[in-house]
Write a structure and sequence with these properties.
The structure is a single chain. With about 150 residues, the protein is mostly helical. The protein has a single domain, classed as Zinc Finger, Delta Prime, domain 3 (Up-down Bundle). It contains six helices and no strands. Helix 2 packs antiparallel against helix 3. The radius of gyration is 22 Å and the shape is elongated.
Length: about 150
């Protein structure tokens, strides 16, 4: 339930469920039963979301029907001189060196692949904040792409 039905709406649910099971294994009855009971209460009232579960299933289905695609050249490691000459890793942007630790406008998908958008956070629990963060990152991407277009003209 913590993984499939609550998911990222309340990630603490996963830890609470695991801790309760461990407590029961270590202490037995009655303390372990109290841990399990309290975990059940927590899980029953936690915000619910199956968005992560749905996204995972969509990604797996996509992989099963799609072809293998090459890793973008700018993301490839270049341990040899030849690979460097072929452009491997050229123009790679290390996100931790970028503002907000995010390489705005960068793409990590194979060439020609659209952003799949499998994960759609719900408007409950922590996923509210995740949705806000995703929206903010999309805005940064749009600004970066607009700036790139402005530089090319």
């Amino acid at each position: 339930m913590a993984w499939e039905d609550i998911g990222l709406a309340d990630p603490r649910a996963m830890q609470i469920a695991n801790d309760a099971a461990l407590t029961y294994e270590r202490l037995g009855s009655p303390e372990g039963e109290l841990a399990l009971g309290q975990a059940v209460i927590y899980l029953s009232i936690a915000a619910k979301s199956n968005a992560g579960y749905m996204a995972y299933n969509q990604a797996v289905a996509f992989i099963k029907q799609d072809q293998s695609r090459p890793v973008p050249v700018h993301l490839r490691n270049a341990p040899t001189k030849l690979m460097k000459e072929l452009g491997y890793g050229h123009a790679y942007r290390y996100a931790h060196d970028e503002p907000e630790a995010y390489a705005a406008g960068e793409t990590y998908l194979p060439e020609g692949m659209r952003e799949p958008g499998w994960y759609q956070p719900v408007s409950r629990g922590l996923e509210l904040k995740i949705a806000d963060k995703m929206a903010h990152l999309r805005e940064l991407d749009q600004q970066a792409r607009a700036n790139q277009k402005g530089k090319k003209t």
